[in-house]
TrEMBL record:
<dbReference type="InterPro" id="IPR000192">
    <property type="entry name" value="Aminotrans_V_dom"/>
</dbReference>
<keyword id="KW-0664">Pyridoxine biosynthesis</keyword>
<keyword id="KW-0663">Pyridoxal phosphate</keyword>
<keyword id="KW-0718">Serine biosynthesis</keyword>
<dbReference type="InterPro" id="IPR015422">
    <property type="entry name" value="PyrdxlP-dep_Trfase_small"/>
</dbReference>
<keyword id="KW-0808">Transferase</keyword>
<dbReference type="Pfam" id="PF00266">
    <property type="entry name" value="Aminotran_5"/>
</dbReference>
<comment type="function">
    <text>Catalyzes the reversible conversion of 3-phosphohydroxypyruvate to phosphoserine and of 3-hydroxy-2-oxo-4-phosphonooxybutanoate to phosphohydroxythreonine.</text>
</comment>
<dbReference type="InterPro" id="IPR006272">
    <property type="entry name" value="Pser_aminoTfrase_mycobac"/>
</dbReference>
<dbReference type="InterPro" id="IPR022278">
    <property type="entry name" value="Pser_aminoTfrase"/>
</dbReference>
<keyword id="KW-0028">Amino-acid biosynthesis</keyword>
<protein>
    <recommendedName>
        <fullName>phosphoserine transaminase</fullName>
        <ecNumber>2.6.1.52</ecNumber>
    </recommendedName>
</protein>
<dbReference type="InterPro" id="IPR015421">
    <property type="entry name" value="PyrdxlP-dep_Trfase_major"/>
</dbReference>
<comment type="pathway">
    <text>Amino-acid biosynthesis; L-serine biosynthesis; L-serine from 3-phospho-D-glycerate: step 2/3.</text>
</comment>
<keyword id="KW-0963">Cytoplasm</keyword>
<keyword id="KW-0032">Aminotransferase</keyword>
<comment type="similarity">
    <text>Belongs to the class-V pyridoxal-phosphate-dependent aminotransferase family. SerC subfamily.</text>
</comment>
Length: 371
Protein backbone atom coordinates (compact mmCIF):
# COMPACT_ATOMS: atom_id res chain seq x y z
CA UNK A 1 0.00 0.00 0.00
CA UNK A 2 1.32 3.45 -0.96
CA UNK A 3 2.23 5.89 1.74
CA UNK A 4 -0.30 8.68 2.20
CA UNK A 5 1.42 12.05 2.53
CA UNK A 6 -0.59 14.39 4.79
CA UNK A 7 -2.60 16.91 2.82
CA UNK A 8 -1.04 19.86 4.63
CA UNK A 9 2.39 18.86 3.28
CA UNK A 10 1.41 18.40 -0.37
CA UNK A 11 2.04 21.03 -3.04
CA UNK A 12 -1.00 22.64 -4.62
CA UNK A 13 0.32 21.39 -7.97
CA UNK A 14 2.65 18.41 -8.06
CA UNK A 15 4.03 18.80 -11.57
CA UNK A 16 7.79 19.39 -11.66
CA UNK A 17 8.68 18.13 -15.13
CA UNK A 18 11.67 19.63 -16.90
CA UNK A 19 9.94 19.47 -20.26
CA UNK A 20 7.25 19.34 -21.30
CA UNK A 21 6.62 21.47 -18.27
CA UNK A 22 3.62 22.40 -16.21
CA UNK A 23 0.85 24.26 -18.07
CA UNK A 24 -0.90 26.41 -15.44
CA UNK A 25 -4.49 25.69 -14.57
CA UNK A 26 -6.94 27.64 -16.68
CA UNK A 27 -4.78 27.93 -19.81
CA UNK A 28 -6.49 25.09 -21.64
CA UNK A 29 -9.81 26.58 -20.60
CA UNK A 30 -8.74 29.87 -22.14
CA UNK A 31 -7.89 28.02 -25.33
CA UNK A 32 -11.28 26.33 -25.37
CA UNK A 33 -13.01 29.68 -24.87
CA UNK A 34 -11.42 31.13 -28.00
CA UNK A 35 -10.91 27.92 -29.95
CA UNK A 36 -13.94 28.30 -32.21
CA UNK A 37 -12.36 31.30 -33.92
CA UNK A 38 -8.79 30.06 -33.68
CA UNK A 39 -8.45 26.31 -34.13
CA UNK A 40 -8.95 25.06 -37.66
CA UNK A 41 -8.34 28.54 -39.08
CA UNK A 42 -5.73 29.06 -41.79
CA UNK A 43 -2.47 30.31 -40.38
CA UNK A 44 -2.53 32.95 -43.11
CA UNK A 45 -5.69 34.50 -41.67
CA UNK A 46 -6.24 37.13 -38.98
CA UNK A 47 -7.05 34.97 -35.92
CA UNK A 48 -3.79 33.01 -36.08
CA UNK A 49 -1.76 35.98 -37.28
CA UNK A 50 -2.94 37.85 -34.20
CA UNK A 51 -1.57 35.09 -31.95
CA UNK A 52 1.79 35.12 -33.78
CA UNK A 53 1.95 38.88 -33.29
CA UNK A 54 1.18 38.46 -29.57
CA UNK A 55 4.13 36.07 -29.26
CA UNK A 56 6.52 38.29 -31.21
CA UNK A 57 5.53 41.43 -29.32
CA UNK A 58 5.66 39.58 -26.01
CA UNK A 59 9.18 38.30 -26.63
CA UNK A 60 10.33 41.69 -27.88
CA UNK A 61 9.17 43.28 -24.63
CA UNK A 62 10.26 40.46 -22.32
CA UNK A 63 13.82 40.47 -23.67
CA UNK A 64 14.02 44.24 -24.25
CA UNK A 65 15.33 43.50 -27.74
CA UNK A 66 18.03 45.92 -28.88
CA UNK A 67 17.45 48.01 -31.98
CA UNK A 68 17.69 45.92 -35.14
CA UNK A 69 17.12 42.57 -33.41
CA UNK A 70 14.16 40.53 -34.62
CA UNK A 71 12.20 37.43 -33.65
CA UNK A 72 11.76 34.46 -35.99
CA UNK A 73 9.54 31.40 -35.50
CA UNK A 74 9.66 28.00 -37.18
CA UNK A 75 8.58 24.39 -36.84
CA UNK A 76 10.63 21.57 -35.37
CA UNK A 77 11.86 22.57 -31.91
CA UNK A 78 15.41 23.17 -30.73
CA UNK A 79 16.64 19.87 -32.18
CA UNK A 80 15.62 21.08 -35.63
CA UNK A 81 17.31 24.42 -34.98
CA UNK A 82 20.69 22.72 -34.45
CA UNK A 83 20.47 21.34 -37.97
CA UNK A 84 19.10 24.63 -39.28
CA UNK A 85 22.12 26.44 -37.87
CA UNK A 86 24.52 24.15 -39.72
CA UNK A 87 22.81 25.13 -42.98
CA UNK A 88 21.89 28.76 -42.38
CA UNK A 89 24.28 30.26 -39.81
CA UNK A 90 27.61 28.44 -39.62
CA UNK A 91 29.69 29.59 -42.57
CA UNK A 92 32.81 27.41 -42.25
CA UNK A 93 33.60 26.28 -38.71
CA UNK A 94 32.03 26.52 -35.28
CA UNK A 95 33.23 26.24 -31.70
CA UNK A 96 31.06 24.46 -29.13
CA UNK A 97 31.33 24.62 -25.34
CA UNK A 98 29.74 21.34 -24.28
CA UNK A 99 28.73 20.51 -20.70
CA UNK A 100 25.64 18.36 -21.23
CA UNK A 101 23.50 16.50 -23.73
CA UNK A 102 21.98 19.52 -25.46
CA UNK A 103 25.28 21.17 -26.26
CA UNK A 104 26.72 17.83 -27.36
CA UNK A 105 23.93 17.31 -29.86
CA UNK A 106 24.56 20.65 -31.58
CA UNK A 107 28.28 19.88 -31.70
CA UNK A 108 27.48 16.52 -33.28
CA UNK A 109 25.25 18.17 -35.88
CA UNK A 110 28.11 20.50 -36.86
CA UNK A 111 30.63 17.67 -36.95
CA UNK A 112 28.36 15.58 -39.22
CA UNK A 113 27.65 18.39 -41.71
CA UNK A 114 29.95 17.56 -44.68
CA UNK A 115 29.96 21.14 -45.97
CA UNK A 116 31.49 22.45 -42.71
CA UNK A 117 34.96 22.12 -41.29
CA UNK A 118 35.67 20.09 -38.16
CA UNK A 119 34.34 22.07 -35.18
CA UNK A 120 36.28 22.86 -32.05
CA UNK A 121 34.61 21.18 -29.06
CA UNK A 122 35.47 22.22 -25.50
CA UNK A 123 34.00 19.82 -22.95
CA UNK A 124 33.34 19.44 -19.24
CA UNK A 125 32.21 16.42 -17.28
CA UNK A 126 28.54 16.21 -16.32
CA UNK A 127 27.94 18.70 -13.52
CA UNK A 128 30.79 20.94 -14.67
CA UNK A 129 30.88 23.97 -16.96
CA UNK A 130 32.74 24.61 -20.21
CA UNK A 131 32.92 28.13 -21.61
CA UNK A 132 33.89 29.38 -25.08
CA UNK A 133 37.29 30.93 -25.74
CA UNK A 134 38.38 33.25 -28.52
CA UNK A 135 39.53 31.41 -31.64
CA UNK A 136 40.49 33.07 -34.91
CA UNK A 137 39.26 30.58 -37.49
CA UNK A 138 35.70 29.95 -36.32
CA UNK A 139 32.70 32.01 -37.36
CA UNK A 140 30.25 30.76 -34.70
CA UNK A 141 30.56 30.27 -30.93
CA UNK A 142 27.83 27.99 -29.55
CA UNK A 143 26.88 26.98 -26.03
CA UNK A 144 23.89 26.38 -23.79
CA UNK A 145 22.58 29.00 -21.38
CA UNK A 146 21.09 26.28 -19.18
CA UNK A 147 21.83 22.59 -19.52
CA UNK A 148 18.49 20.89 -19.00
CA UNK A 149 20.20 17.52 -18.67
CA UNK A 150 22.42 18.38 -15.70
CA UNK A 151 21.19 21.63 -14.16
CA UNK A 152 24.28 23.70 -15.03
CA UNK A 153 23.85 27.37 -15.93
CA UNK A 154 26.39 29.28 -18.04
CA UNK A 155 27.12 32.99 -18.38
CA UNK A 156 25.92 34.61 -21.58
CA UNK A 157 28.71 36.98 -22.61
CA UNK A 158 30.65 37.28 -25.83
CA UNK A 159 34.02 35.53 -25.50
CA UNK A 160 36.76 37.95 -24.55
CA UNK A 161 38.82 38.65 -27.65
CA UNK A 162 36.15 37.48 -30.12
CA UNK A 163 36.56 39.32 -33.39
CA UNK A 164 33.97 41.14 -35.46
CA UNK A 165 31.94 38.84 -37.67
CA UNK A 166 31.96 35.89 -35.27
CA UNK A 167 28.41 35.04 -34.23
CA UNK A 168 27.29 33.94 -30.76
CA UNK A 169 24.59 31.25 -30.79
CA UNK A 170 23.08 30.39 -27.41
CA UNK A 171 20.71 27.50 -26.84
CA UNK A 172 18.18 28.88 -24.36
CA UNK A 173 15.69 26.02 -24.50
CA UNK A 174 15.22 25.77 -20.73
CA UNK A 175 16.60 29.20 -19.85
CA UNK A 176 14.58 31.64 -21.93
CA UNK A 177 11.93 33.33 -19.84
CA UNK A 178 13.28 32.06 -16.52
CA UNK A 179 16.79 33.53 -16.46
CA UNK A 180 17.97 37.06 -16.96
CA UNK A 181 19.91 37.71 -20.16
CA UNK A 182 21.39 40.62 -22.09
CA UNK A 183 20.35 39.74 -25.64
CA UNK A 184 22.98 42.16 -27.00
CA UNK A 185 25.62 39.62 -25.84
CA UNK A 186 24.18 37.16 -28.38
CA UNK A 187 23.42 37.06 -32.06
CA UNK A 188 21.07 34.10 -31.88
CA UNK A 189 19.20 33.22 -28.68
CA UNK A 190 17.00 30.27 -29.57
CA UNK A 191 14.57 28.15 -27.59
CA UNK A 192 11.37 26.12 -27.61
CA UNK A 193 8.05 26.86 -25.85
CA UNK A 194 7.61 23.77 -23.67
CA UNK A 195 9.68 24.83 -20.67
CA UNK A 196 9.63 28.33 -19.15
CA UNK A 197 6.90 29.36 -21.57
CA UNK A 198 4.50 26.72 -20.23
CA UNK A 199 3.38 25.55 -23.63
CA UNK A 200 3.78 22.50 -25.85
CA UNK A 201 6.66 21.43 -28.09
CA UNK A 202 7.20 21.43 -31.85
CA UNK A 203 8.28 25.02 -32.49
CA UNK A 204 11.57 26.89 -32.35
CA UNK A 205 11.79 30.60 -31.63
CA UNK A 206 14.84 32.80 -31.81
CA UNK A 207 16.05 36.34 -31.54
CA UNK A 208 18.37 37.45 -34.33
CA UNK A 209 20.90 40.26 -34.36
CA UNK A 210 21.48 42.32 -37.51
CA UNK A 211 24.76 40.40 -37.96
CA UNK A 212 22.94 37.06 -37.76
CA UNK A 213 20.34 38.23 -40.27
CA UNK A 214 23.07 39.39 -42.64
CA UNK A 215 24.86 36.04 -42.29
CA UNK A 216 21.68 34.07 -42.98
CA UNK A 217 20.83 36.20 -46.01
CA UNK A 218 24.34 35.87 -47.41
CA UNK A 219 24.37 32.10 -47.06
CA UNK A 220 20.88 31.85 -48.56
CA UNK A 221 22.12 33.80 -51.59
CA UNK A 222 25.16 31.54 -52.02
CA UNK A 223 25.37 28.20 -53.83
CA UNK A 224 24.90 26.26 -50.57
CA UNK A 225 21.79 24.07 -50.68
CA UNK A 226 19.48 24.97 -47.78
CA UNK A 227 16.40 22.72 -47.49
CA UNK A 228 13.15 24.65 -47.22
CA UNK A 229 12.53 23.29 -43.71
CA UNK A 230 15.81 24.92 -42.58
CA UNK A 231 15.29 28.21 -44.42
CA UNK A 232 15.93 30.79 -41.69
CA UNK A 233 15.49 33.72 -44.06
CA UNK A 234 12.11 32.37 -45.14
CA UNK A 235 11.07 31.88 -41.52
CA UNK A 236 12.07 35.45 -40.68
CA UNK A 237 10.18 36.86 -43.65
CA UNK A 238 7.08 34.93 -42.64
CA UNK A 239 7.35 36.07 -39.02
CA UNK A 240 7.53 39.68 -40.18
CA UNK A 241 4.12 39.05 -41.76
CA UNK A 242 2.77 37.57 -38.50
CA UNK A 243 2.86 34.11 -40.02
CA UNK A 244 4.97 30.99 -39.97
CA UNK A 245 6.57 29.47 -43.07
CA UNK A 246 4.79 26.15 -42.49
CA UNK A 247 1.52 25.45 -40.70
CA UNK A 248 2.27 25.87 -36.98
CA UNK A 249 0.86 24.21 -33.88
CA UNK A 250 -1.69 26.93 -33.23
CA UNK A 251 -2.57 25.76 -29.71
CA UNK A 252 1.12 25.88 -28.80
CA UNK A 253 1.39 29.48 -29.96
CA UNK A 254 -1.75 30.41 -28.04
CA UNK A 255 -0.54 28.86 -24.77
CA UNK A 256 2.80 30.63 -25.16
CA UNK A 257 1.08 33.96 -25.81
CA UNK A 258 -0.95 33.49 -22.63
CA UNK A 259 2.20 32.74 -20.62
CA UNK A 260 3.95 35.79 -22.05
CA UNK A 261 1.01 37.99 -21.07
CA UNK A 262 1.21 36.60 -17.53
CA UNK A 263 4.99 37.08 -17.35
CA UNK A 264 4.77 40.70 -18.42
CA UNK A 265 1.88 41.39 -16.06
CA UNK A 266 3.97 40.01 -13.17
CA UNK A 267 6.87 42.35 -13.93
CA UNK A 268 8.70 40.83 -16.88
CA UNK A 269 12.01 39.01 -16.97
CA UNK A 270 13.31 40.50 -13.71
CA UNK A 271 10.25 39.18 -11.88
CA UNK A 272 10.56 35.76 -13.51
CA UNK A 273 14.25 35.55 -12.60
CA UNK A 274 13.44 36.46 -9.01
CA UNK A 275 10.74 33.80 -8.92
CA UNK A 276 13.01 31.02 -10.16
CA UNK A 277 15.83 32.19 -7.88
CA UNK A 278 13.53 31.85 -4.87
CA UNK A 279 12.71 28.26 -5.84
CA UNK A 280 16.39 27.50 -6.40
CA UNK A 281 17.35 28.87 -2.99
CA UNK A 282 14.83 26.49 -1.43
CA UNK A 283 16.00 23.41 -3.33
CA UNK A 284 19.74 23.90 -2.98
CA UNK A 285 19.44 24.98 0.65
CA UNK A 286 17.47 21.79 1.39
CA UNK A 287 19.91 19.60 -0.55
CA UNK A 288 22.89 21.02 1.32
CA UNK A 289 21.31 20.45 4.74
CA UNK A 290 19.61 17.07 4.31
CA UNK A 291 21.78 14.07 5.13
CA UNK A 292 20.62 11.87 2.24
CA UNK A 293 20.81 14.26 -0.72
CA UNK A 294 23.26 16.79 -2.17
CA UNK A 295 23.37 19.16 -5.15
CA UNK A 296 24.73 17.36 -8.21
CA UNK A 297 26.49 20.50 -9.48
CA UNK A 298 29.39 21.09 -7.06
CA UNK A 299 30.04 24.79 -7.80
CA UNK A 300 27.19 26.93 -6.41
CA UNK A 301 27.77 29.57 -9.10
CA UNK A 302 27.06 26.97 -11.78
CA UNK A 303 23.78 25.71 -10.30
CA UNK A 304 20.76 26.41 -12.43
CA UNK A 305 17.84 28.45 -11.06
CA UNK A 306 15.40 26.73 -13.44
CA UNK A 307 16.39 23.04 -13.37
CA UNK A 308 17.90 21.55 -10.20
CA UNK A 309 19.54 18.14 -10.18
CA UNK A 310 20.18 16.53 -6.81
CA UNK A 311 22.08 13.35 -6.03
CA UNK A 312 20.50 10.88 -3.61
CA UNK A 313 22.54 8.80 -1.23
CA UNK A 314 23.15 5.28 -2.52
CA UNK A 315 21.04 3.91 0.33
CA UNK A 316 17.93 5.62 -1.06
CA UNK A 317 15.78 3.57 -3.44
CA UNK A 318 14.97 6.25 -6.03
CA UNK A 319 12.43 4.12 -7.85
CA UNK A 320 10.50 3.44 -4.66
CA UNK A 321 10.75 7.10 -3.64
CA UNK A 322 9.40 8.29 -6.98
CA UNK A 323 6.64 5.69 -6.94
CA UNK A 324 5.49 6.88 -3.54
CA UNK A 325 5.60 10.52 -4.63
CA UNK A 326 3.72 9.72 -7.84
CA UNK A 327 1.00 7.95 -5.87
CA UNK A 328 0.52 11.26 -4.05
CA UNK A 329 0.33 13.36 -7.21
CA UNK A 330 3.98 14.51 -7.30
CA UNK A 331 5.32 13.65 -10.74
CA UNK A 332 8.08 14.02 -13.34
CA UNK A 333 11.17 14.12 -11.14
CA UNK A 334 13.16 11.80 -13.42
CA UNK A 335 16.83 12.48 -14.04
CA UNK A 336 17.93 12.96 -17.63
CA UNK A 337 18.56 9.63 -19.30
CA UNK A 338 22.17 8.54 -19.04
CA UNK A 339 23.24 11.32 -16.67
CA UNK A 340 22.59 9.95 -13.20
CA UNK A 341 21.25 6.69 -11.83
CA UNK A 342 20.18 8.00 -8.43
CA UNK A 343 19.15 11.57 -9.09
CA UNK A 344 16.06 13.72 -8.96
CA UNK A 345 15.63 16.58 -11.44
CA UNK A 346 13.29 19.37 -10.38
CA UNK A 347 11.93 22.01 -12.74
CA UNK A 348 11.63 25.47 -11.21
CA UNK A 349 10.31 27.35 -14.25
CA UNK A 350 8.27 30.51 -13.70
CA UNK A 351 4.96 28.62 -13.84
CA UNK A 352 6.06 26.50 -10.85
CA UNK A 353 5.05 28.19 -7.62
CA UNK A 354 8.00 28.58 -5.22
CA UNK A 355 5.64 27.50 -2.43
CA UNK A 356 5.10 24.21 -4.26
CA UNK A 357 8.85 23.72 -4.53
CA UNK A 358 9.15 24.14 -0.78
CA UNK A 359 6.29 21.68 -0.28
CA UNK A 360 8.06 19.19 -2.55
CA UNK A 361 11.14 19.17 -0.32
CA UNK A 362 8.97 18.53 2.74
CA UNK A 363 7.23 15.65 0.98
CA UNK A 364 10.51 14.04 -0.07
CA UNK A 365 11.75 14.27 3.53
CA UNK A 366 8.51 12.75 4.79
CA UNK A 367 8.66 9.80 2.38
CA UNK A 368 12.38 9.13 2.90
CA UNK A 369 11.85 8.92 6.66
CA UNK A 370 9.32 6.15 6.05
CA UNK A 371 11.00 4.11 3.34
Amino acid sequence: MALRIPDDLLPADGRFGSGPSKVPAGRLGALAATGVDLMGTSHRQAPVKHVVRRVVDGLTTLFSLPSGYEVAIGNGGSAAFWDLATFALVEQRSQHAVFGEFGAKFASASRNAPWLGEPTVLTAEAGGLAVPVAEDDVDVYAWTHNETSTGVVAPVVRPAGARAGQLVLVDATSAAGGLGVDIAETDVYYFAPQKSFASDGGLWLTTLSPAAIERAERIAASDRHVPAFFDLVGALKSTRLDQTYNTPAVATLFLMAEQLDWMLAQGGLDAMSARTAASAETVYGWAEKASYVAPFVPDPSHRSPVVATVELDASIDKVRLMDELRANGIVDLDAYRGVGANQLRIAMYPAVDPADVEALTRCVDWVVERL
